[in-house]
Amino acid sequence: MDKHTQLIKFGTVIKQRRLALKLSLRELEKQSSVSAALITKLENGKMANFPKAITIKQLSDALKFNDELFVLADILFETKEHNLPEKTFEDELRQLLATRTTLNSDNITQVIYFISGLEKLQKMENL
């Protein structure tokens, strides 16, 4: 994949996650300390180069990514699964809901809490 295509994909991933989390540009700016102008340029593929690693880290944290943004920016060429802690069901579900639904982070937390409660109830019924 050439650099321009990578930059476009990088921006698309950021925008999709931001929208999935129902964050405005200003909200993401506050949470990440990355300017809304820079975020807009990234999302629209208007950057000539990838941002600095610290900027990617700030966006990654605010958007609840693990290493995905670094992989897209070729800072990490592959995820080192043997060094990463195994994701819990809750982590995987949270990521799925954040990227595949329009639920905000509070509602995602409520869904996970609800499922946890159902699991506990089911265990009690099976005793």
Helix and strand composition category = mainly alpha
CATH level-4 homologous superfamily of the largest domain: lambda repressor-like DNA-binding domains
Q: How many DSSP helices? A: 7
Averaging pLDDT over every residue, what do you get?
A: 84
Q: Any idea how many domains?
A: 2
Radius of gyration, Cα only, in angstroms?
A: 17 Å
Characterise the protein shown here.
The chain is elongated. It has helices at 3-20, 25-32, 36-43, 53-62, 68-72, 89-100, 105-125. It is mainly alpha-helical and 127 residues long. The chain contains 7 helices and no strands. It starts with a helix and ends with a helix. It folds into 2 domains: 3-72, lambda repressor-like DNA-binding domains (434 Repressor (Amino-terminal Domain)), CATH 1.10.260; 89-125. Helix content is 65%, strand content 0%.
Salient structural properties:
mainly alpha; Lambda_DNA-bd_dom_sf; 65% helix; Helix-turn-helix transcriptional regulator; 2 domains; single chain; 434 Repressor (Amino-terminal Domain); 7 helices; 127 residues; DNA binding
SSE layout:
Layout: H1 3-20, H2 25-32, H3 36-43, H4 53-62, H5 68-72, H6 89-100, H7 105-125
Helix pairs in contact: 1-3, 6-7
Protein name: Helix-turn-helix transcriptional regulator
Organism: Candidatus Scatousia excrementipullorum
Pfam families: HTH_25
Q: Quick summary of this structure?
A:
GO terms for molecular function: DNA binding. This is Helix-turn-helix transcriptional regulator. The protein is an all-alpha fold and 127 residues long.
